[in-house]
């Protein structure tokens, strides 16, 4: 069966952080995850990640999803792959893909097309290459009349070789059995005293086997990051690629400043995204919505014709025609009904809000189930936490919770209940009743004049 090895041993010193480079994020996901998802999309799930610097962080991130092996010393890309020989020997039928964990834009299409060429040509190794205007730093692909003859690293290259613009992407297909044999022949006799995986090309040819190159049409697949500046560039590139996909699908942007949409987000046509808006995770947004400005939405399902203005929403469902914001916060596990309003300075958490229910201003609704067409007044609060435990409030359909009312959970209001403004609701209220809890207001006439009158001597 075909399998993959992902090289993720690098530290990335120039990142100036105590973290393996492949864990740095592009559009919210570690570069390693981009590479893994390209493998998975190409149908390769048997993956071994070679870890090195802070390898435990790679294990922690992967959470047991894939095999990992440790490269204790960083002696080159060939040495890194040698660490995975037991993984290769588990099942040495078929082919092995080798990828770099810090080049996130390799894609399933390139992987599959290169495999096709690799199999057609019966190669021991097929290098994925690209033409770069600025090839500096990359291994150069050396060709002769009969095909490729080898890969030469920048540090080992002659001036003539340095002029070559076709470079090694760092991604390869190998015949697994041949790879195991070739790894045994790599030496470190070169400028960097490293075991170069790239030497497998000339070694295979010397052994009378085939070696080939698959040149990608898209040179961007080889982009990687050495420092934070490069990482910003990768983010900018990915961000614009994603925005471009949505433009193609009929999503509008009047200005893309501050717009960051992660790659798994789905947005239907006719929706408009306004500036300074981040849409993250597995968010799905329907059509005819206006999202932003100044908004964050993460892992939400948003219906059609919804407005979310200057608000944040996480791990929740927002129904068709709902209005959220400005300055609203929908915390995880909410279900906002169709046509409902979560207005200015309203926070909602772990709650179900019924259809057309209005929470227009200055309210906190936590751990609550509110029916349809209810009205929650300004300053109303569900008091869901007694300092030890959280409890729920239930508010029936058509209820009207007055301004500044506090509902002390657990408490249940029936259908069509009114609670007077300022009422502290401490017990259940039956359908169609009014709950009122208020001192008698007194008027003390002339009070101010008496208070301020000068004292007589
Ligand atoms: C390598 C290739 C070069 C190619 C370039 C593409 C070799 C000898 N050269 O160069 O031809 O153009 O990639 O980016 O392979 N790694 C380890 N352990 C090591 C060394 C590297 O795990 O001992 C990992 C790194 O973390 C990285 C990948 O292998 O993910 C590539 O290593 P890097 O040092 O970036 O390779 P280059 O020398 O730049
Ligand atoms: Ca290097």
Structure, described:
- The structure is a single chain.
- The chain is 20% helix and 30% strand.
- It has 10 helices and 41 strands.
- The strands form 7 sheets. It has an 11-stranded parallel β-sheet, with no helix packed on it. Strands 14-17-20-23-26-29-32-35-38 form a 9-stranded parallel β-sheet, with no helix packed on it. Strands 5-4-1-6-10-7-11 form a 7-stranded mixed β-sheet.
- The longest helix has 21 residues, at 228-248.
- It binds uridine-diphosphate-N-acetylglucosamine and calcium ion.
What descriptors fit this protein?
single chain, 11-stranded parallel beta sheet, 41 strands, alpha/beta, 457 residues, 9-stranded parallel beta sheet, binds uridine-diphosphate-N-acetylglucosamine
């Amino acid at each position: 069966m075909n399998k993959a090895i992902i090289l993720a041993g690098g530290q990335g010193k120039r990142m100036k952080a105590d973290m393996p480079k492949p864990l740095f994020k592009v559009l919210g996901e570690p570069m390693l995850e981009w590479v893994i998802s390209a493998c998975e999309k190409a149908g390769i799930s048997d993956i071994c990640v070679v870890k090195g610097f802070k390898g435990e962080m790679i294990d922690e991130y992967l959470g047991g999803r894939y095999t990992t092996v440790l490269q204790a010393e960083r002696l080159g890309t060939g040495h890194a792959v040698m660490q995975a020989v037991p993984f290769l020997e588990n099942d040495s039928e078929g082919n092995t893909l080798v990828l770099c964990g810090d080049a996130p834009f390799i894609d399933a299409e390139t992987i599959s097309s290169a495999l096709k060429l690799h199999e057609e040509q019966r190669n021991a190794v097929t290098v994925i290459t690209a033409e770069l205007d600025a090839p500096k730093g990359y291994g150069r692909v050396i060709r002769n009349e009969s095909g490729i003859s080898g890969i030469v690293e920048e540090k080992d290259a002659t001036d003539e070789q340095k002029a070559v613009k076709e470079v090694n992407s760092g991604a390869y297909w190998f015949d697994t059995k041949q790879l195991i044999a070739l790894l045994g022949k790599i030496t470190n006799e070169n400028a960097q005293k490293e075991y170069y995986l790239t030497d497998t090309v000339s070694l295979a040819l010397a052994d009378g086997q085939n070696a080939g190159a698959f040149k990608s049409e898209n040179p961007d697949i080889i982009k990687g990051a050495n420092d934070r500046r490069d990482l910003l560039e990768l983010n900018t590139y990915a961000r614009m690629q994603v925005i471009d996909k949505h433009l193609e699908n009929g999503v509008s942007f009047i200005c893309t400043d501050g717009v960051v949409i992660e790659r798994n987000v789905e947005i239907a046509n006719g929706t408009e995204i306004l500036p300074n808006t981040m849409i993250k995770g597995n968010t799905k947004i329907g059509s005819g919505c206006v999202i932003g400005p100044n908004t964050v939405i993460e892992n939400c399902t948003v219906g059609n014709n919804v407005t979310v203005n200057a608000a944040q929403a996480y791990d929740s469902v927002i129904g068709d025609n709902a209005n959220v914001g400005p300055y609203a916060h929908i915390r995880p596990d909410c279900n906002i009904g169709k046509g409902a309003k979560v207005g200015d300075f309203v926070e909602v958490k772990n709650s179900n809000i019924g259809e057309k229910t209005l929470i227009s201003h200055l309210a906190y609704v936590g751990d609550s189930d509110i029916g349809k067409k209810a009205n929650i007044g300004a300053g109303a609060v569900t008091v869901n936490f007694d300092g030890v435990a959280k409890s729920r409030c239930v508010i029936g359909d058509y209820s009207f919770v007055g301004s500044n009312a506090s509902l002390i959970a657990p408490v249940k209001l029936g259908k069509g209940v009114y609670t007077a403004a300022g009422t502290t609701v401490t017990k259940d209220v039956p359908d169609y009743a009014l709950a009122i809890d208020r001192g008698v207001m007194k008027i003390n006439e002339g009070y101010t004049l008496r208070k301020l009158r000068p004292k007589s001597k």
